[in-house]
Amino acid sequence: KLCVFANDGAHPDYPSYVIDEATGNQIPLTVKGDGACPQGVGKEPNSGVLFFNNTFAVNPDNNEFVVEFDLRRGLKDGTGQNEGYSIQRTSVTLFNTVT
Fold it and tell me: Which superkingdom is the protein from (predicted)?
């Protein structure tokens, strides 16, 4: 199990956003989870959490993990005014690039 913290669009230093192609405006991008790992191991302000509950392999010597987002499938327009976009957790995959 693994938690990956991702900055929200409201992060003061490194906000996540989507650029509106028509206007060039930055629209906030949010990852749900209120910055808290479900296992209670940590909390990060101005962030969301991607929780990987599936089994994954860890090599004994070296590991390089990549989190891949399928934005075509997982980018969701907010339902309220000025809510921005969110990433659905089901569109995120964890890969260990070291075999």
Answer: Bacteria
Q: What is the 3-state secondary structure (H, E, C) of the chain?
A: CEEEEEECCCCCCCCCEEECCCCCCEEEEEECCCCECCCCCCECCCEEEEEECCCCCCCCCCCCEEEEECHHHHEEECCCCCCCEEECHHHEEEEECCC
**CA–CA separation, 27 vs 38, rounded Å?**
27
Q: Which of 48, 13, 5, 12 is nearest to 29 (CA)?
A: 48
Find the largest Cα–Cα distance for the chain: 48
What would the pLDDT profile of 19-51 be if each residue is shown by its tens digit?
Answer: 889 999 988 888 887 888 887 777 888 898 888
Distance in angstroms (rounded) separating the CA atoms of residues 46 and 33? 10
pTM of the model: 0.70
